[in-house]
Amino acid sequence: MPTRTVEFGLFLIPEADNYRQLTEIAAYADTAGLDLIGIQDHPYQRRYLDTWTLITGLAVRTSRLTFFPDVANLPLRNPAVLAKSVASLDIMTGGRIDLGLGAGAFWDAIAAMGGQRLSGGDAVRALSEAIAVIRAMWSGERGLRVPGTFHTLNGAHGGPAPTGDPGIWLGAKGPRMLELTGRAADGWLPSSGWAELDYLRQAGERIDDAAAAAGRDPLSVRRLYNVSGTITRDGVDRGFLNGPPQRWIDDLTMLVHQYRIDGFIFWPVEGDPMTAAARFAEEVVPVVRANTGA
């Protein structure tokens, strides 16, 4: 059995031309019993709305859902200001905000927007420093000083402190990122497109080992899985995360019990997003909740 309630949500693409549909999907999810909305963050995509602005617009329109960037592009977002944005919206929504963070990708596009191009090791170090800055800013204390090479605080005044307890979830893939997740983060955000089952097990063990080495309970580090695929109507089972509702029910139940996944963010890859969201929320989620004791 899972050690905590399993949560379910939707992954949204912030396309400017689809803003109305995005509001409709969020409103549906808010009333359909889903828990989370994750929105990808690629500021250099000219067709995309700014993720944080979109999250703000959707969060204040809803009453239940927790929102988070999946994941925020740190090289283009100052961590002290990002911390203040998260805390502000957390207060405005009554504690319904979390923070997904990534070390950076698509470096040519980041550099084109004025962001600093970093090597793999430096990007991980910058992310580690950013986590320290963000947590300090959330403390609400005055005269904060956080040393670092890439991100620092030099006498800054933190606050406002968030109402709830926003989690910091990392989109981690490589060994150094996985170790940072276990050492300093509240959760891990792998995606089924690159995190297959063997990898999930091995990476989960690395995160657990890093958490234990840091004196943390490994079970305190959540595992939220971005699951992309198609819930089909033709009854044909095409394999992992691609088939009729029963296929999805079996796969997600297995992931909870065997891989300690405790959150699923559904990203439909075919068909109408609203229709796919309804199939997930109404035909898959209730049965997985029943199967897992959630």
From TrEMBL:
One Pfam family in the UniProt entry = Bac_luciferase
Q: Name one GO molecular function term.
A: oxidoreductase activity, acting on paired donors, with incorporation or reduction of molecular oxygen
- On the tree of life, the source organism's domain of life is Bacteria
Domain called Luciferase-like: residue spans: 8-226
User: Where, if anywhere, are coiled coils annotated?
Assistant: none
Sorted keywords for this record are: Oxidoreductase
PANTHER family according to UniProt: 5,10-METHYLENETETRAHYDROMETHANOPTERIN REDUCTASE, PTHR43244
Q: What name does the UniProt record give this protein?
A: LLM class flavin-dependent oxidoreductase
- Species annotation: Nocardia arthritidis
